[in-house]
Design goal:
The protein has one domain: Electron Transport, Fmn-binding Protein, Chain A (Pnp Oxidase, Chain A, Roll), CATH 2.30.110. The longest helix is centred in the middle third of the chain and has 15 residues. The mean pLDDT is 94. The chain is of the alpha+beta class. The protein has a seven-stranded antiparallel beta sheet with strand order 2-1-5-6-7-4-3. The protein has five helices and seven strands, in the order H-E-E-E-E-H-E-E-H-E-H-H. A hairpin with an 8-residue loop joins strand 1 and strand 2. 26% of the residues lie in helices and 31% in strands.
């Protein structure tokens, strides 16, 4: 993932806070089996201290390519929007000379995979996932030998992704003038829909970064 200096996280707290806001769905990417194409799996992942917890169906083709201890990546992307060229035209120039771009936030985790097949360990993993995704606790106890989960555990495999490195990118034109960035944020808000997330992230970046030429 290319990260220009102006697209980098202000600090580790920025991307950690962004993930903690509820971004727990992404793409697991694994090297292909026996020289084949990479395997990419969209899935939820529960963040815990230093790791991401995943479970997938046993027939999932990812298991053909993934061994215990293998390196994998997990990427989360959100707050994205397409920005039309005229919105980015420099002041005093023809709006048609503006070049379009994409805005987005992304965190890529480089991880070491730990496969979980023991029934009791899978039950514990699911319990920890439920504590994240369903904190209200309105679910049956997950045990390896009791209903409803016990009989289903044989149909899944657990996966603990131990995070080795995290790289974050917040691509919102931070190297462009503040006035242009504020105008784009307003336009994104006016366009509505999921563009609101991109507008909010851009405004946060303006507040945190300010004019690029004065950064640092």
């Amino acid at each position: 993932m290319l990260i220009h200096p102006w697209d980098a996280a202000v600090d580790e707290g920025e991307w950690r806070g962004w993930i903690a806001e509820g971004r727990d769905f992404g793409q697991l990417a694994v090297n292909g089996f026996d020289g084949g194409p990479p395997v990419v799996v969209p899935t939820h992942a529960a963040p815990v201290s230093g790791a991401l917890l995943v479970h997938l169906a046993r027939p999932n083709p990812v298991w053909q390519a993934l061994g215990d201890g293998d390196p994998v990546t997990f990427t989360v992307i959100d707050d994205y929007a397409f920005v039309p060229g005229p919105w980015r035209a420099r002041s005093g120039t023809d709006p048609l000379d503006g070049v379009p771009t994409s805005y987005y936030s992304a965190v890529r985790f480089t991880c070491r995979a730990e496969l979980v097949d023991d029934p009791a360990a899978k039950a514990e993993l699911l319990t920890r996932q439920l504590a994240h995704f369903q904190p209200e606790g309105d679910h049956a106890e997950v045990t390896p030998d009791g209903p409803p989960y016990g009989r289903m555990l044989s149909g899944i495999r657990g996966l603990v992704l131990h995070v080795v490195e995290a790289a974050a990118k917040f691509k919102y034109d931070d190297h462009r003038p503040v006035a242009l960035r504020e105008d784009v944020a307003d336009r994104l808000t006016g366009r509505g829909g999921r563009d609101a997330g991109a507008a909010d992230r851009q405004r946060r970046r303006i507040k945190a970064v300010g004019p690029w030429e004065k950064r640092g």
